[in-house]
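Researcher: Next sequence.
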Amino acid sequence: MAGNDLGGLLGGLLGGAGGGGRSGSGSGNILGALLGALGGGSGAGSGSNPLGGLLEMLTKSGLAEQKDSWVGTGQNQAVTGEQIQQALPDETLQKVAEQAGVTPEQAASDLARTLPQAVDKLTPEGQVPQAASLEELVRRQSL
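Model: Next structure:
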């Protein structure tokens, strides 16, 4: 399944970050589930680029300063699981939680922990790169 492939790519991109003693595929899987849900026509905006849609959602929900710190080249600002829950549509968070096998609250907490690093790595030059697909974007950054 493409979501699993994307999760593996993201896990590799993040270098196994996240999962207390685990290989880190958990953080990649939760991010893959989120970006897959956003790319699945959930109205995230920014056409076929789910990363752009996610960043747009974060901006509209009052997290522009945090989002800008992740995209920019400075220090990444933290967000809370509660902020992520407020930023994402309920159906998106529910879908992510189901795909990751966790509660929506746990999914939001996991995303709050991993999103800053993931967005930072996916935007190495301080802007969202244009790519035909998210998989292509992740592969470019993994090289």
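Model: The chain has seven helices and no strands. Helices lie at 2-13, 25-39, 50-71, 81-87, 90-100, 104-122, 134-142.
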